[in-house]
């Protein structure tokens, strides 16, 4: 029996880690698409990817730079490009995606200008028959730790329970546990919004504050995430789970978090331009902050932490002043939605 073919679109750290999970299964044949020629060559010839340094990739994971060849015969398509280029990449990929394929989005972000989630972006690109088998994968998973087989739990949201369960069977591994839900909106928003709060947590740490302050940022950040998520149609409980609180805790406290690192360096006094100029990988929260700020205004949702992160990233307010503004806000009751 021929192996089931899987195409992973995006050879960054997260796409490569997911490709590893899948390529280690005997019943799957996995090809990963890379925008960069040298990354594809390194994967094929040395079983290495500079986005996951010092990690040996399985020999079964093969790389391509041609989207149509990557997608040829693939019954599973994983969209793992940075959020702001998903539309461009997947529009090019769309003609080569089989009608019966499962499409799993693993990108965490909200498109600038349109303010669309990744499921909405793909919904404008892919045929309806493909989108009926759409899923979103999110949750607390650093790529390096997944690639190192550190036990990890994530969530897959499907348009139907049956599709989510089918996708779970594809990804489930002894070290990669999958939970399922049908709250696509909540899962997509949780994965995007937590990156903005992670920048805030990093700024707090960079300013030299300790656990009291960071725990306040995380908890009140979760309140903001939940308020917006519910206003946009997500389920409140989702934000208490892996795609919400789980991913938020990881990204706000883990040293491997790119978004926390951006925030930390901002708190230390570096400029955003300086920080981004020497980062190899994309910190999704920087671009997502702009979208979330606009969504909060559109839905009339109070998000004071997001407002201050937006102000810092755009040079409107200094980090220390932003924290003072948050602390001196009018006292209120603790409300979540």
Question: How many H/I helices?
Answer: 16
Shape: globular
> What is the percentage of strand-forming residues?
5-15%
From the N-terminal CA to the C-terminal CA, the straight-line distance is 51 Å
Give the mean pLDDT: 95
**Main sheet characteristics:** 8 strands, mixed
Question: SSE order, as H and E?
Answer: EHEHEHEHEHHEHEHEHHHHHHHH
Percentage of helical residues? 40-55%
Total beta-strand segments: 8
Cα gyration radius (Å): 19 Å
Helix/strand-derived category reads alpha/beta
Record the strand order, biggest sheet.
3-2-1-4-5-6-7-8
What does this protein structure show overall?
By secondary structure, the protein is α/β, with parallel strands linked by helices. Helices cover 50% and strands 12% of the residues. Strands 3-2-1-4-5-6-7-8 form an eight-stranded mixed β-sheet, sandwiched between helices.
Key descriptive features of the protein:
337 residues; alpha/beta; eight-stranded mixed beta sheet; 16 helices; 50% helix; globular
């Amino acid at each position: 029996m021929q192996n089931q073919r899987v195409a992973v679109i995006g050879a960054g750290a997260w796409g490569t880690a997911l490709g590893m999970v899948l390529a280690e299964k005997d019943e799957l044949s996995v090809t990963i698409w890379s925008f960069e020629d040298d990354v594809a060559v390194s994967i094929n010839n040395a079983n290495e990817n500079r986005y996951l340094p010092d990690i040996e990739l399985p020999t079964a994971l093969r790389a391509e730079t041609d989207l149509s060849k990557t997608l040829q015969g693939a019954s599973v398509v994983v969209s793992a490009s940075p959020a702001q280029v998903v539309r461009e990449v997947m529009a090019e990929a769309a003609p080569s995606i089989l009608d019966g394929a499962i499409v799993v989005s693993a990108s965490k972000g909200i498109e600038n200008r349109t303010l669309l989630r990744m499921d909405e972006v793909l919904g404008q690109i892919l045929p309806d028959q493909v989108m009926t088998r759409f899923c979103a994968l999110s949750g607390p998973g650093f790529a390096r730790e997944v690639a190192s087989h550190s036990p990890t739990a994530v969530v897959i949201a499907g348009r139907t329970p049956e599709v989510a369960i089918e996708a779970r069977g594809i990804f489930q591994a002894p070290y990669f546990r999958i939970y399922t839900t049908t709250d696509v909106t909540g899962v997509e928003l949780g994965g995007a919004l937590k990156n903005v709060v992670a920048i805030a947590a990093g700024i707090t740490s960079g300013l030299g504050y300790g656990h009291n302050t960071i725990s306040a940022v995380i908890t009140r950040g979760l309140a903001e995430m939940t308020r917006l998520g519910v206003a946009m149609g997500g389920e409140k409980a989702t934000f208490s789970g892996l795609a919400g609180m789980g991913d938020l805790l990881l990204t706000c406290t883990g040293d491997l978090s790119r978004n926390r690192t951006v925030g930390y360096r901002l708190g230390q006094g570096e400029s955003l331009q300086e920080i981004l100029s020497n980062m190899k990988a994309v910190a999704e929260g920087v671009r997502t902050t702009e979208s979330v700020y606009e969504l909060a205004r559109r839905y009339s949702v109070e998000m004071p932490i997001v407002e201050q992160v937006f102000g810092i990233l755009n040079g409107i307010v200094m980090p220390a002043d932003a924290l003072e503004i948050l602390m001196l806000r009018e006292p209120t009751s603790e409300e979540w939605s």
